[in-house]
């Protein structure tokens, strides 16, 4: 890799570190190509990405970034999983780590907040952006549904009373 390629990688990594809601650092020694492809597919499906880069280049890219504190995690064979959604990459990484013991999560960062192993696990248990939006929409829609039900209820009550009176008259 020549100097120009290294500068390009550092620039790409810098953009990843700045724009990602969460970055998870893990060791991947012993993973097969198929297992790594599975991790990449899971990440893509959930709006995240996987990046393997030289630790030295990643450390250079981290300089001056909000998540600079993860530089000490970059030792050995490391892989970065990241996503704009502050929860997606952590969820996928945790699920993959449960399925595959060779994938060892070291920690990560959520903005300027450094996360240890337990922090990544805690973030993975939070609801995703889509789940939060769905619950907010549900909360907003519930009062409207209750009002519609209250307005419609008297008419149905009148209909059932008339039906009961009709049944009694016929008997």
Record the SSE blueprint.
Elements: H1 3-19, E1 22-27, H2 33-45, E2 48-51, H3 55-62, E3 78-83, H4 88-99, E4 104-110, E5 113-115, H5 117-124, H6 129-170
Descriptive notes:
This protein is α+β, with helices and mostly antiparallel strands and 171 residues long. The protein folds into two domains: 124 residues, 2-Layer Sandwich (Alpha-Beta Plaits), CATH 3.30.70; 45 residues. The chain contains six helices and five strands, in the order H-E-H-E-H-E-H-E-E-H-H.
Note the main attributes of this structure.
single chain, 171 residues, alpha+beta, Alpha-Beta Plaits, 2 domains
Total beta strand runs: 5
Output the strand order for the largest sheet.
2-3-1-4-5
Strand content: 15-25%
Rg is 26 Å
Mean pLDDT: 85
- What oligomeric state best describes the polypeptide chains here? single chain
- CATH domain class of the largest domain: Alpha Beta
**CATH fold node name of the largest domain:** Alpha-Beta Plaits
Number of domains: 2
Q: Sum up the overall morphology in one term.
A: elongated
Helix content: 55-70%
* CATH superfamily membership of the largest domain: Ribosomal protein L10, N-terminal RNA-binding domain
Summed up:
It contains 6 helices and 5 strands. The chain is of the alpha+beta class.
